[in-house]
Amino acid sequence: MSIQKPTTHTLIARKLIVYQRERSAIWQCRFNVDGRWQRASTGSRDLADAKAKAHDILVEANTLKKLNVAPITRRFKDIANAVIKKLKAEMASGNGKAIYKDYITAIDKYFIPTLGKFAVNNIGYKELELLDKARIKKMEKQPTRSTLLNHNAALKMIFDEAIYKGYMVELNRPKLVAKGKASERRAEFTLDETRALKSNFDAWIKKGRADSVELRKLLRDYVYVLLDTGARPGKELLELKWTQMELKMYPVIKKTGVIEKPNEYDDRGSEIEISNANRTVILNIQDSKTDSRLSIGRLPTVKALEAIAQRNYGKTPAKLIKEGCTDYIFTYIEYIDEKKVKRKRKPKLLRPTSFSKLFDNYLTSHSLQTDLITNKKRVLYSLRHTYATLALTHDKVAIHTLAKQMGTSTTMIEQHYSHLDAVKAVHQLRGDESRQLIDMELDDDDKKRYSFKEIESKLDKRKR
To answer: Is the Cβ–Cβ distance between 162 and 79 less than 8 Å?
Structure first.
């Protein structure tokens, strides 16, 4: 049996205890309500007085419990920090979700500064309205509905934690709503604008200052990969390492539309295998808004990665993968001026913090920054929408396949790109293959079979 400390006194077995913390003269109490232990300060330095107050605290706690009120509460800030600690622990263990980072940001940046001082069981509609106003002021805009849904999910975690620990009762949980403005699809680039976007990069790079050339080259490769994969700008690509990609060689099957050996069983045209392999890269995207996924990069992505590997290492991506290189892919060589050269300073590989401003400068210098029809400003995210638009209208990619590639839902694809139905129909109704078959010449026997004279002769025979 453990010996009780002289600073600990049991007033009611398994119900009520008073004790002193180290380096504190104030008596604390621990009390049990419905099998759950709680802590509170008696606020007294006198033991007898502390015992009397502890009894009062227990009686009040039981009364509050009967009234469906939390017997004791904590500040919102304390519960919020406990939730942050749990989320970080989940992420460190590898079991956390990517969205947890957004939850932590919302709690740190918006919730704690606004609601931190309130008792968690006193958070009601008045306090939530205060949060709404503070959020709009800090964001300098009305948050979208998707942003509010993420924030509400984080708030729910905090209230769940408070209820679990007995600092709040379910009856007091405020109802969370998301009345933000509907998220708008960012303006994409047209096909001609996409061509202009790609074709002007090399000249723009040459015009840059010596200390910006390498970063401009990296932006070009970054843009090419975004256009080719539909990845989200930011962490999805910037957090990728060489060991998180795999190079593949897939044969290309091409329909020629030419019937080499026509017969009654073959009227579709032959399919021949091209000898050249289709170089493809599989990107293992881990740091995503949604779950991790495998994303396919075609030849433009392969070439962009080859350019980065050659500039930074003088090697091929295949060589870096084989060597187990754990460096981040999207890096550039630090510029070393003459002074640093004299000091024998060796250049390092640097990671860009963001490409947003540099890309904005590039678009502005080539009159591509604004969509002339919608007057919307284009940003890096516009490349993702351009990819989706071209995939649906020209490549005829199925919505389910596109959703997997882009790491989103079919609902989001349908919601954002339903306006393409008419355009998509134009391309899909061109019927390239069927028209090739229709335009094929008939052989002489078939021509004779369907000639007017042949049909007229058959009719005469029937009359006889």
So the answer is: yes
